[in-house]
């Protein structure tokens, strides 16, 4: 079994264990689900080459286990796309981040874009949804749904902040080093195709 297949299988086992611990009523079932949870985190630690405590801290969300939600803004200027440079890694991606509770998806992306680029934007609509579990190049512990919104800048300018050091527009043939857990060349190519299709209708 390939590493990605192992990871996805262990993710599923962990999700079943977490659901059982949350909803199971029988005390003996709870013991079995707890054992299954410990087994799943041990297997994930083995795949991720880390310790069990780290895995358990990463997956310690309360409630029913569901994929995490990541929102990104797709802002273009002709044939160029706006990217931001991550402070920690120095690599580039579409502006965005985790969706916060109590805020709509479009409000989330407006907030993230403002924080990372200094731009106030309007949201034209949802352009694409990417599922990280469909990627084989960079296996990730958690499954993410990446919601990509087409956005139009209204006002503002870049101000350096704790998350990003700069923003700039790039064409597909002159992209900087990308933070590929966040944004890939293939995703950007697909987004340009979807944008062209949406605006041609």
Automatic annotation (TrEMBL):
Molecular function (Gene Ontology), one example: hydrolase activity
Cited PROSITE patterns: NUDIX (PS51462)
Keyword annotations of the record: Hydrolase
InterPro entries, per database record: NUDIX_hydrolase-like_dom_sf (IPR015797), NUDIX_hydrolase_dom (IPR000086), UDP-X_N (IPR059176)
Cofactors: Mg(2+)
Domain Nudix hydrolase: 64-192
Stated name of the protein: ADP-ribose pyrophosphatase
Species, as recorded: Enterococcus canis
């Amino acid at each position: 079994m390939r590493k990605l297949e192992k990871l996805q299988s262990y993710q599923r086992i962990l999700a079943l264990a977490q659901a059982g611990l949350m909803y199971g009523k029988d005390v003996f079932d709870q013991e079995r689900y707890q054992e299954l949870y410990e087994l799943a985190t041990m297997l994930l630690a083995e795949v991720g080459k880390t310790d069990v405590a780290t895995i358990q801290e990463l997956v310690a969300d309360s409630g029913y286990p569901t994929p995490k939600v990541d929102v990104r803004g797709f802002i273009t200027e002709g044939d160029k796309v706006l990217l931001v440079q991550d402070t920690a890694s120095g690599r580039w991606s579409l502006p965005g981040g985790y969706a916060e509770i109590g805020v709509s998806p479009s409000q989330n992306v407006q907030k993230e874009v403002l924080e990372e680029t200094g731009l106030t934007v309007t949201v034209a609509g949802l352009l694409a949804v990417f599922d990280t579990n469909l990627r084989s190049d960079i296996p990730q512990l958690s499954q993410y749904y990446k919601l990509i919104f087409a956005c139009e800048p209204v006002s503002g300018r870049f101000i350096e902040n704790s998350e990003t050091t700069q923003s700039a527009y790039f064409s597909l043939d002159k992209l900087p080093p990308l933070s590929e857990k966040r944004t890939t060349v293939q995703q950007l190519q697909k987004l340009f195709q979807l944008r062209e299709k949406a605006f041609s209708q």
